[in-house]
Amino acid sequence: MNNIYTTRQLSILIIGISEWQGKYASIPNAYAKELSKYTDVYYVDRPYTLKDFFTRISTRKVKRIFLSYFFWKYRIVRPIEDLPQLHLISSGFIIPVNFLPPGKLYDLLQKANERITYIRLEKVFKKCNVKNFIFLNSYNPFIGNYFPASFKPLLTIYHCWDDIRYSEYIFKHGPSLEIAFMKKSDVVLASSHRLMELCKQYHSTVYLSQNAADTKLFKQEFAVKTISNAAIFNKERRYKGVIGYIGNIDNRINYHLVLQIAKGLPEYLLVMVGPESISDELFEQTKKCSNVTTTGSVLHEYLPAYLHQFDCTIIPFRYNELTKSIYPLKINEYLAAGKPVVSTCFSSDIESFKSVIYLVDAPEAFNDAIKQSIADDCESLQDRRMQFSENNTWPKRISQFNEIVSRHLTVKDNIVSQE
Q1: How far apart are CA 46 and CA 19, in angstroms?
Q2: Which of 70, 155, 157, 192 has the lowest CB atom count within 10 Å?
Q3: pTM above the 0.85 mark?
Q4: 291 plus 155 within the same structural domain
Q5: How many domains does the chain contain in total?
Q6: CATH of the domain at 355
């Protein structure tokens, strides 16, 4: 397919809920990087509030936002040297409103916040001569619902990749804003089959666009010395092997199960890599086990160095309304490294991996599955897993995205020509 962006002189605006270089692996970041290979991509970084200004003014990011009010070079930067078409737009400071109940005051201040973002965006587009563009809102319905009529993307696309009703921070206002944004969009993307069902209640044109992985990155082997806290793997000498989890340590995880793994398999080292955003007594008990290590946040490019030290990887999620809509980012990263994966059976999407992972229905069988996966592991199984992950790469997902964009631009062209 021809590059539709070049042919039509199209840019792409992405507004995501993720901070550009935040603690978490980010779907909108992955889209931005891959799409920037085709055209200019303008990524609006997550805004900070006035509260952040007063409490975090000493941090580099908040200082940059402050300076962006006075100096153009701080307003738009190129964060990645080898992707010159990717532009990061530094958001202005907004009013903290999430604590407010739904109502007129919240709506008024929310509109003011959107106005702050729009004014910044308008100046950047004028300076960079952006005229024709696609608007991709990646799970951030807090920006774009109240943009003025002068904001005219050729296509508006909403990407739903989590069930916003169960998001701990944004569940209060997020669901109603998401529904409103979907209704004004031309196209909706959903990252799982369950989310597709939910989105179809509010929009007739919903496509499945599952998460993927940078398989080239995760196939690479890195020396342990590239790990900032490599000393944790010195413990490995005392154990039969290493069980690993990579991802957010949050309310999706079954901490009864994690504690069961730690206590039931004392001969293995359990390493949990990722930011902790949970206060759970069982997790605190787990961390006290002598065979358990947590690392905190790790930059995405360093994750393969940890992953290649693992003998088995796990996805110990709960089964509930939140998790049954999840297509986890980590599954394809695990497989790209050729690692055995043991997971709870928490969603229909995870079941689609049953030919290459160990799916466990009963928690009491999880430890046995871990031991079995390590015993079964061999080069042919590793190759099979890596080949399977190649079905789920970001270039393939963006190719599908480009086809959707091309199809709907053609539909709009035909409607205009008939008028």
Answers
A1: 5
A2: 70
A3: yes
A4: no
A5: 2
A6: 3.40.50.2000
